[in-house]
Write a structure and sequence with these properties.
By secondary structure, the protein is of the alpha/beta class. 33% of the residues lie in helices and 24% in strands.
Length: 470
């Protein structure tokens, strides 16, 4: 397929539909920094639309056809359907359209070094860790991530060097538009089955992603993940440069891992069996140890010594919606995490258990009917992801992009969790969940709300007091 080239529209106006999205606002700022005239629209105001307006990018609240009149090119994301009034208006007016991932790919071609951070879980954390290391090392990177990162003031940083660090998202094969010179693949899991249909198709997609690397490019894979490790071995057999990292194996390994009751995690980094650095993280969980290893390995390729990378990570804080401290309930700490896949949930709750003197109580909102059916409706699907929780409270499924066809109900997930040996209860609303928590929570417990739907906003209903600074 032949896509419009942004260079063609240097003297025109590029209009973003849904400009307030995490990725979209970053792309808009990048185009503005490259000299383009940018406008946009969104359904409502947000921190991102406020940042855009402060940067001099006009943002229209509300989406209607007149917003695209006079535009030379319209940019949209996968969330913006063809019947959207602005997309429909652009077609009627003959205005070319460009999908978000293709625009990101075209922007990446402007940089000499492009680090694409991929994997079904952990992309935002690894990307922001690497961004902090690169910034502290004076590499002045441009950064594009899929979450709100406090050190970036959002999801993007505009640098002035040839280095670009970006999340490489596998959903709908978005990352295949990129021009990476370094790739990280942290894990390959059975996610996004609404698009990929089978795990084999997911793996083939990652194979296509690896094929984008130039001959002198570098692939960094997690040796602890079976499919990512296999991907690395196959790439190495094809003559590509590959390094692996992990707790159990790899060129870069974490040893002597310790964790304290506050959630701080410390470990030694070994490079090819030799001590390279000692790392102290302010975040819990083996998954964050692996994330840090990936960032350190990528930073080494960029010329940053492991000791310097480790020093930078001492003050790293997870991005918003990644084990974010939300406040307290009856003296118990309440956290939220974006985790919405069994592997992510298991890793998050394992980290929560390490900082908990009492019980871990989980509130899990599944964000689509397809995901509920394929990942959470049988014991085999769960793979022990809730094992660290003493109780799981489950509200109604958040529909996301889907319509309820009766395929699955939240009660089906509750039945599977109970069958796995973990106590779970179905409570349709967050008001009912709050009442149940009031009955059972003790001060030494930790409450973790989980999911990628509106559970983040609904968590406010579960708090006696928000965390300081919120």
């Amino acid at each position: 397929m032949e896509y419009p080239k942004i260079e063609t529209y240097k003297n025109g106006r590029i209009h973003f539909i849904g400009i307030g999205g995490t990725s979209m606002h970053g792309l808009a700022l990048m185009l503005q920094s490259l000299g383009y005239t940018v406008t946009g629209s969104d359904r409502g105001e947000s921190n991102f639309t406020e940042r855009l307006q402060k940067a001099g990018i006009p943002v229209m609240i509300g989406q209607k056809e007149e917003n695209v009149q006079g535009a030379s090119l319209v940019v949209f994301s996968a969330a913006i359907k063809p019947e959207n009034p602005e997309r429909a208006g652009a077609r009627r007016l003959g205005i070319p359209e460009l999908e978000r991932s293709e625009l990101l790919g075209q922007i990446s071609a402007h940089y000499r070094q492009v680090v694409g951070v991929a994997g079904c879980h952990g992309k935002t954390t690894m990307s922001s860790m690497l961004a902090k290391i690169a910034m502290d090392a004076g590499l002045d990177p441009t950064v594009h991530v899929g979450g709100f990162v406090d050190l970036l003031g959002g999801g993007v940083r505009l640098g002035h060097s040839p280095l670009f660090v970006t999340e490489a998202c596998e959903y709908v094969d978005s990352y295949l538009h990129l021009h990476p010179t370094v790739e990280i693949v942290s894990n390959i899991d059975n996610d996004h089955l609404d698009y990929f249909k089978t795990e084999e198709n997911i793996y083939k997609s990652f194979e296509s992603y690896v094929s984008l690397l130039p001959q002198d490019g570098l692939l960094i894979v997690c040796a602890d993940d079976e499919k990512a490790g296999r991907l690395g071995r196959e790439a190495k057999a094809q003559g590509r440069r590959v390094v692996a990292y992990g707790i159990g194996a790899g060129d870069w390994q974490a040893k002597n891992i310790t964790a304290d009751h506050l959630g701080d995690t410390a470990f030694d980094v070994l490079r090819e069996g030799e001590f390279a650095a000692h790392v102290t993280l302010l975040e819990p969980g083996d998954h964050n140890v692996r994330n840090a290893l990936a960032a350190i390995a990528a930073a080494a390729e960029l010329g940053v010594l492991p000791e310097a990378a480790a020093k930078s990570l001492e003050s790293y804080r997870l991005t918003r919606r990644r084990f974010e401290r939300m406040g307290s309930l009856k003296g118990a700490r309440v956290f939220h995490d974006y985790a919405h896949h069994p592997a992510e949930i298991g890793a998050c709750l394992q980290g929560a258990k390490s900082v908990c003197a009492g019980r871990v109580i989980a509130v899990f909102q599944c964000n689509s009917y397809t995901r509920a059916k394929t990942l959470f409706s049988t014991v085999q699907d769960l793979r022990g992801c809730f094992d660290c929780a003493a109780l799981v409270l489950v509200p109604d499924i958040y529909p996301g992009r889907e319509v309820d066809t009766g395929l699955v109900h939240a009660k089906d997930m509750v039945a599977a969790i109970n069958e796995s040996g973990v106590k779970a209860e179905y409570l349709p609303t967050f008001e009912e969940i709050r009442a149940r928590l009031d009955e059972v929570v003790q001060p030494e417990d930790v409450v973790v709300t989980l999911g990628s739907g509106d559970v983040y906003k609904k968590t406010a209903l579960l708090l006696d007091a928000p965390a300081e600074g919120r």
